[in-house]
Design brief:
Length: 134
Amino acid sequence: MLVHYKPRPRPTVYIPLTPIIDIVFLLLIYFLLTTNFMVEEGIKVKLPRAEATAPQTQKEITVYIDKEEKIFLGSEDVSLATLFHRLREKIGDNQDKLVVIKADREVTVDKAVKVMDVAKTAGAGKLVLATEKP
């Protein structure tokens, strides 16, 4: 008796892609949500480092001093003489207004102290010299 052997087709293996795609999207969402997208506007300065710093949550007026010792109120380049008048306008009658001074590491202490003095005489109730954590 003659038996004809008919070859069986090989079973195909399917890799389920749906769970893999779900995991990839969940990881993508996780990294997007945990990434810090906060971009700080203003003049680029390298802040001095300090161990004991606390984040400020109050709305503030920011004064920048870059490494060439130019003074900026926000993004406007001002001289030390006009800084008083500009700060006086911004502070107004609010004696609790916070003024943050962001001075570059290479700025002399004398220049930073002069700016702090001008801010205090302009009526700043709270004065902060910004630093960054190491």
